[in-house]
Amino acid sequence: MRFDLSFLPALGAAFMLVFARIGTMIMLLPGLGESSVPTQLRLTAALLVTLVLLPLHRGAYQIDLTSFGPAFTMLAEELLVGALLGFSVRLAIAGLQVAGSIIAQQLGLGFVTAVDPTQDQQGVIVGNFLTLLGVTLIFSTDLHYLVIAALDDSYTLFRPGELPLSGDMAAHITHTIAGMFRIAVQISAPFLVFGLVFNVALGLLSRMMPQMQVFFVGLPMTILGGLLLLLVVVGAMMATYLGYIDDILHDIAPHA
User: Fold this and answer.
1) Strand ranges inside the chain, DSSP E
2) Are 118 and 98 spatial neighbours (Cβ–Cβ below 8 Å)?
3) Sign (positive or negative) of CA dihedral 90, 92, 96, 101
4) How far apart are CA 3 and CA 241, in angstroms?
5) Does residue 244 contact residue 138 with C-beta atoms inside 8 Å?
6) Nearest to 93 by CA among 114, 121, 119, 122
7) Disulfide-capable partner of 96 in 48, 117, 130, 225 (CB 3.0 to 4.6 Å)?
8) Closest CA to 65 of 4, 7, 8, 13
9) Distance separating alpha carbons of residues 96 and 51, to the nearest angstrom
10) Cβ distance 60 to 156 under 8 Å?
């Protein structure tokens, strides 16, 4: 009995190309793609998702294995698509760090920094708290399943062998960055109002009582009032942010 194994090279090439798209996206995803997550876990997740999606989209890869040029070109395209998808989600999460920086400045905590585990660099402590809270809520509300749907839908939006248009990619990234700053200002708006009103009140108080040391009185009151305000509005802030994340994920997973 003879076994026909002539399909194995094409199957192996298709597997590597699917893995390139999925692995690149997972490498950039917040929560799962952090350097603190073991490499074996990230690799296992990428391999499992590849095994699930490969039977669905294997026919989309028409690979010419007689030369290296077409295969390497398609590999570069797959890496580019995976980076675009992962970077979109990463930018959306970065909006919480921007909002945290705005809030920290209004509370007088802009100098209090700690290592942000989602970006592996120093960040203001309020931003770190909001980022970790946002990632936790994404997983707890099952929004992360839309990421898998986005990988599946990406084969409709970005067909293998078709280079994504640079104009469309630039427009998508620009739209995502603009949305990131918009949501950051939107969820930090209560603290902008609080900072404005409180500083105006301190200015009036210093004019009426010039002998009072406004700085030593105002800073503790700013921190205390800001933290109380954060306790009151954090639920509404994160609900608004989850709506924004849901829109972003549906943009890259339109059929979900």
Assistant:
1) 113-116, 121-124
2) no
3) positive
4) 55
5) no
6) 119
7) 130
8) 13
9) 33
10) no
**pTM (predicted TM-score):** 0.78
How far out from the chain centre does Cα 97 lie?
A: 11
In this prediction, residue 134 carries a pLDDT of: 87
Name which of 242, 10, 222 is nearest 136 in CA terms. 242
Which structure tokens are listed for 138?
Answer: 């994404």
Six-digit token string for 33? 């793609």
Structure tokens at 207: 């004019």
User: How confident is the model over 194-232, as pLDDT tens digits?
Assistant: 888 888 887 787 777 777 676 677 777 888 888 888 888
Task: Describe the crossing of helices 68-107 and 166-187 by its angle, rounded to 10 degrees.
Answer: 20
The kind and range of the H/E element at 203 are helix 189-208
Give the three-class secondary structure for 213.
coil
Average pLDDT over residues 89-116: 79
- Report the C-alpha gap between 215 and 122 in whole angstroms: 27
Rounded Cα distance, 113 and 122, in Å? 6
CA dist., res. 206 & res. 220, Å (int):
16
DSSP assignment, residue 59? G
Helix (H, G, I), strand (E, B) or coil at 123: strand
* C-alpha torsion sign, points 135, 138, 143, 145: positive
